Amino acid sequence: MIPRWKLKRELVRLRDQIASLPQAIASLHARLSEPQRRRAHDAAFPQNLRVTEGKIVPSPRLAVVVLFQPHGIALSTLESCKGLVAGGYAPLVISNAILSDSDRALLAQTCWRTVERPNFGYDFGAYRDGIRMIREQGITPDRLILMNDSFWCAITPELLGKIEDLDADLSGLLQDEKVQHDTKGGKPTQNLHIESYCLFISARLWKAEAFRTFWDGYLMTNFKPRTIKNGEIGFSRKMKAAGFSLIALTNRGSFLTALSNVANDELQQVLRYAAYDDPVFRSEAAALLLLPAEGDAWRNKVLDHIRRWVNRRRFNTAFPLASGRIFGVSFLKKSHEEIFAAARVAYLRGCEDGLIQPASSAIVAELAQSVSSVVPTKR
User: How many whole angstroms from its chain centre is CA 271?
Assistant: First the structure.
């Protein structure tokens, strides 16, 4: 007999496939024309790019910073560029949207170059063009950062130093693993990757044939699932298969190990500032918070609840307060999905209650605007 959890998983997968069918059919023509569009893009490169020189001199440390902000550059983006410069990196800003004259002038103060390109291929298409441009300049970076604007994080020299100290060929902010689901809440596998909104490339990896082969052969696409599979996930796994080391500043295992050593009252606080998009887990957390935070029985139930939840959602999103305390850095995705919006609300509550040191006033203001409401009251 098929286990109930597996049947439920397959039914959910079938539902999602059926729901996405109209969109897949509607986008079929555009996807079929992509090979021709890729050839045209590469044939016109770099004449099809608008390049604005900035005031930062290119250095052995470069950062390709990809933006899609058609309504104007966010203050947090300018702060990120300043943080990169303070950390010794020269930003190469690549915009997948047309910039205004005023935004070009602002970015020129804190970058080596600003490049406007056709909106094709998402962040990995822009990463590819940035890498190609660096090569054509004859630059061999000692360190390269690939970063996009899909997340909020205070980029500081201290944070950059922490990731550099990992001393890996490919590193970043967060390591994600595919979870093998079961009735006990799932188990992470060795199918891992570094999430691509923040990637650090070593000089050794830059010079490697595997790195060059990946980017020379990468096929840009506006079909997002394929970009994730062949870009974000594919890049990490191909570099790992080629023998290069992958390490992230944060990962699920370290998060759970750290929480297993904290006191019960702190675990209680972890639950109070958690984020949920599943009513079953939300109700479970509420029930645990009604119980006295005493004894091993309560503690074990909480740790099991946290383990099962982070096997379903990213730990830094599910528990932004705890993740920030454990790793010394907070980063939040800009996605409109319910779980990410809930994480932003939880983070803002932590800031309001004095439990989280805000990353910056600009980031807090943008977070508050993104949730389109006043920070919820304490509970």
Answer: 23
Q: How far apart are CA 290 and CA 277, in angstroms?
A: 20
pTM summary value: 0.89
Strand 90-95 relative to strand 113-116: parallel, antiparallel, unpaired? parallel
Q: How far is CA 212 from CA 170, 205, 208, 228, 262, in A?
A: 14, 9, 7, 19, 45
Task: Using alpha carbons, select from 186, 189, 318, 169 the residue that is nearest to residue 247.
Answer: 169
Site of tokens 């910073």: 65
To which H or E segment does residue 116 belong? strand 113-116
Which structure tokens are listed for 159? 């944070």
Prior bond of 46 cis (ω within 30°): yes
Distances in Å between the alpha carbon of 297 and those of 286, 302, 304, 325?
A: 16, 9, 11, 25
> Residue 207's CB: how many other CB atoms inside 10 A?
11
Which residue do the tokens 């910056």 mark?
Answer: 360
How far is it, in rounded angstroms, from Cα 330 to Cα 153?
A: 6
First to last CA, the chain: 44
Give all domains of the chain, ordered by start, each with its CATH number: 39-249 (3.90.550.60), 260-371 (no CATH)
Q: What is the mean pLDDT of each run of 10 residues along the chain (379 residues)?
A: 58 59 57 86 94 96 98 97 98 98 97 97 97 96 97 97 96 86 68 93 98 97 93 96 97 96 97 97 98 96 97 96 97 96 97 94 96 51
- Tell me how far the alpha carbon of residue 266 is from its chain's centroid: 27
